[in-house]
Amino acid sequence: MTVMTMHIDASNGRRRVSDRKTKRRGTTKSTRLAIVRPFCDFDANVLLTTFERWNSFVPCRAAVMDPGYEDDDDDGRGGWREEEGILDEWVIFDVSVNGTDRRMVGEEEGMWECEESDRGTNGEDSGDDDGGSGDKDSTSSSSSTPSPMIRRCRRKRPVVGAPEYLDGVLADGSRTTSVDLFLLYSRTYTDSNDAVKAVDAIIEEFLSPGGWGRCFVNVFAVEAGIPKELDLYIPEAQSELLNWVNGPNRQYGAAYRIVQSGEWGNYEAFYLMEGESVPVKNYWLDAIIGEVDAHRPFAVLGSRYNGDKWDGFYESMPISLLHHANGNGIYNVSHPLLERITGQLEVEATGPYNSIPYDYRMSQIWTEGTLGIVPKLAPKIMLNEEGENITLSDNLEMFSTWADRWKGDEPYKFTNAIQNYAATNIIPRNLGPEYVVHGAKLYSPWDPTRMAITLVVSDWFYDRSLSLIKNLDDKDHPFSSVVIMIPESVSNSHDYSKYTSVPVTLQYRHAPDFMDLCAAKVMTDWFMITNSYHQVSRHVDLMFTSGFVPVIPFTPATYPLCLKYPYCMEIIMLSQRWHPKTNRVVLDMDMLYNTKERNEFCTEWMERYGANGQHLYATPPPLRLKRRGEEIVGPKGPTATDYLAYLTREKKGGMYKLIDRSLYGARRPFTKVFRKEENLDGLSVDELAKRFGMTLLSNTTECSCDRFQTENECLGSGLGCRWRPLFASCHPLEMIDDGVLICSTTKAATISPTVSIDASLGKKAPKVTGPESEVYFESRVNERDETGGEGVNDSNGDGPLAVRDLPALSVDKLANDILNSFDPISVSENMSPAASLLESFSRGEVLSSHQGTIKTSCPTYGPSIVPRRIEEFLYNNYSIDNGGRSFNNTASVIGRQVSTLVAVGRARHAQLQLVQFDPLKGLDIGLVKVPLPDEAKKRRTLVNYGETQSELRITFDTSSLLTLLRKLGQNFAAVDQYNLTKARINAYTDTILPSIVRLWGNLLRVYHPLYNVHPHSSSCGVTSIPQQHLEEGVTDADVVVYVEVKDLLTCSLDSRPELTICSFDQHMRPMIGSLSICLDDMDVQDNKVNEKEILHHTALLSQMLGRFLGLSPSLFKYFRNPATGLLWGERSVKISCGESQATRETMLSNIIQQGISRDGEPFYEVSSPTLRQVVRNHFDCQTLMGARLNGPVSDPNNDDECTFFNLDLRFHFDEDMTSISTNADGAFAVSPLSLALLEDSSWYKANFAAATTPSFGRGAGCGFVVSSCIVGGKVPDYSSGYFCASVELPGARSGCDYTHHHKAACDLEIDASPPEKNQYFLPSNPEFGSKFADVHYCPMRSRHLVPCTANGKAVAQLVGESFEENSRCFETDSNIPVCLETICNPVDRSLSFVVNGKHFYCSYYGEVINVYVGYSVFCPRIAVVCPDLVCPSNCSGKGVCDYCLDIPKCICDNPFDGTPGCYGGTSLAQNLEGKSQDEGSAQSSREQNYPDSGFPRSRPDVTIIM
Fold it and tell me: Compositional bias (Polar residues) at which positions (predicted)?
């Protein structure tokens, strides 16, 4: 085979051709790959360094194998195995103790067969420079002189059809693939003699024997022909210059077209390998070829950014950037998608999108097509030469078409063979399985033989630093000793040797804490400093140059990164006193201090400013930013930046190598673990009181992922964090563009606490406004371990209280003028139509204290299982907690006792039911009628409100029912009809409607109108408004509903009730409505309506009224931010809905947001601040953004739009707002989620103490929501107790329903045949599943229900079984469930059960307890069985449920809220005096409202107009 290498003749620009002959390399090669090495004018001189590296790490095995590989060995095993298509290659391994050549490590040992005797190294048999085995055949190995230094091996014969791997990367090598090398110059070779010389030198090396050249067939010198003036790459101009990256963009296009053209050969793909792409292992080309073959088909095969410098602002980055494949990747020139995208780049070459690097722009195109996210460009880029905005073409439809065509093929794929570190500083520990690294800067790690380092810890209490000490030995750190600085007033008697092997010294400080840098007595040559609110990071990756110079990160003192923040600017101005040209900020905890230089620096510092820094701000010239009122805005003591400026002045700056953290990132040596403690420590009662209502504990950086030090902590954080194994670091989940950040980020360049603690030590000092109140760095430089400024954003501590914040009304104004000022239809007057809820979050319009998350280290991807120790105590007649709410919970009907009824199962699944549920009679969107926006605008009424909130007053006007009854009473021939009608009307007026009035009145508070409520018009729906109401209005009412009976014909078509909104107030809160009912729809026996029928209609109408009050998605567009009074707004989106799944342009409320599931399926969820935290607390998953909605449906009021109505049953089975929420069990239950959503409308204040917490999915963890219900045919931990996977015989019951009220069987069907995406029993049983699509075909225990409260109607199956009112179901090791008396103890907040009179206590979920009667009991989730003992009402959305505690409880945002569910009922004075609200507040509230444990009776304020 002839190898042709093309040169460029510099004299005439013509190509010269050289030939050489190579040996036969086996079978004909089926694939052809091009390696494209682009270069430009500035790096032509260093082009040769690429190939020097290739000689160090050879591309393929052919470069190092024995030259005699063509001949067979004497044993018949050598050479090419023609029958297998595999080449026998002898490889030499270094087995010496300190050898540096290739070594056999790890899994490689099972991949090689080696000679029994080692190969000699003396004489002629030793290997060549290229790693070969010399000139002799492999047959000579047996006669070699044995040596313990090397070993000669070859690969084992592979199993037929099995792939070959190198370090976990497929590596078929160049046996079946021919590879050519392209040297691509950006301009033309005639323009540059340097380029020609470099190419000629490379070709000469290629032609020389051995080395990397043996891995390539041809070398071609080609050119891109970019004009000099357009061959640009100017990163610093990326926000202003359209062509700043034109050079690389055009060079990619040239590479694609050259390889695709066929002029040089027919290639399938090319690997664009820039100079920064450096091989780090041998056989990297073999590995890449193997990956190409393994990942077919693909358009682009490459690597995402795998460094860690983005972690501090990961959430705020565009998803297209996070997921883009770096340009140093493999491009399939035959893929039609890549042809289209490359063509699009060529079209955009003269427009604003040319300002985006080609690889990033490719990702933007794909993201726009798949997710509909249109990228944003820098404002100056969008201006033409005349300064006018450039209008971009709308490519969304075209890109979406491409995505629909190819997204199923996964055109973008990623390989481990290439890793993109893009200007990331690393040490050898950070390298992984990659063969080629792009953009990494490799430094040396700390060497303990060359440097001893002390750790200085500033502490203010006797034990705060104990956490750091206890965890010290578990960390990879360089510290040989520790010095703890504590105040003189604190005693400390800890024996630290019990906790750590590192020597610990206590030093009492005699100066202020901010002088610890200078005051610490350090005996080693070097030291670092932190404080007791931190721990040492898992890996303290100190970096050093090859000359062992410490590498220290800095932040440039530019305006965006520093100078616009007063605190940072003050640091720079102070440091410039030492050296006027100081322009870098170094964080105190990043600096590795030299003790000798520290001593000299501190001596001079104290001479200048006093031993306690008292003269720091008194020394002239006065600083421009010295004071703000009475507050010091700068540091009070010496800083690392001062220290560095001093060294620079002394010409000792060479002691450190400084790297720009804004470009290369930085790894923190210390991680903050006590954030809230830092905020609270040292604050007096007066200071706490001043900050009351300010979201004092909203320290949102507490939720940062990078505080987690282990993989288990990271993945189990509940924040959706991702673990980065190469760096042993944790980073946040990426967000959809403009998504709500998990937490905000700031940075402190200080070691002092966030809040001054001088007061706690008996000292009085001015309050310091440090970096925690001034955002220190922009997001891309911020690190997340320091306290955020948003939490304490008012320096005086006088933050706004959470009070009603709606624009004030002037009685003197005309009604129309006032209404016009409250025009929610004209969104532009309040908020940009394009603005989303997520943008509102970023603007701070939705800033709420519960957006942060608690510190947690327990796993929340699955259930949080935390064993605890519990003391025995006597049974004191504690009763089962009836606050639980389920679809089949008879005890959930607020204290009522129904001893004669059979409890329901899941209504449609159950055989024995309290109320038969008919899906055709359930609640759907057509039953709650909301006027279209234009019509709604006309129906507003001006209402003057008072200044206090009280219970919501609902008036049902049933005068039409009384009129009907009177007419029937006058017809003596219709006596039977009269009696039936009377029973039904009495059921409505005496029981059902008063119960609903009482329920919602107890749940919601509003500002009462100062005057009577006047209907807007003379009719409402089909109801005529009484003349008296039109003239005088309705007294003592906030909501008026007129009840009307439907005509017989309408009822024959649909007997379900309908509720119409007729009138709104000026804030668009529904005020007046019409309820149309069919009386015949209510079953009557013996002229009485039985209890189950009353329960069903109560539940149905209660749910409908909830939709009327605000739980209808059609009303979300009118919701306002309670904190600002601004509308949440709406936006235009394209949604597919209806039977035809037609795409419709829909105005969608910003309360409804779109997400993408793990399998790439889009979903919608309702998301508002309080609701979001309720959902997070319910599932024990602090990364959830809202409550998942069922699929979109056609809007019955507007055929051109789609809308939503119900929550998704798969996630919210027993919630309100579902298709089965009208079941009888919901008659007197409203969930915290519903109340949170209503409160976020700004129309109501919710009484969460009266809410009923659902059970389904409670405390299950993130996996319950983000993953499959069944995985591989098995029930994962997060699904345990909620879903099942057992096929059961008819009548058999192997477990409990999810509420533990019933024994139940799994509804798994072996012939369900679910859709492919819902096949959970793969690979063996794809047809298994539930038959119910509304729960995504997830099987549940809902068959053959036996209620544990059967009261003697069930037969005991196990010894000790008891069917009582307080009995609950427990699963056992006998596979037979058992009903046992159960006690929820509010004193100890524990769960216990009784077997044969003996009490057993559950310590944690999943505990197995032997009850000594032949079986053991499995403890259920206490959060399900005793919901009011575990974070009642899901903390009202005003705190975080800490599932890491023994018994989870609420950590309220308001530090003075002592109520168990963060209800806000405890005053500041009570809290300071140690008083708290009764633990059973929620239950006692219900008992007060319904003292007889039966149906609620009418109270004087329950108005039913007859």
Answer: 1474-1491
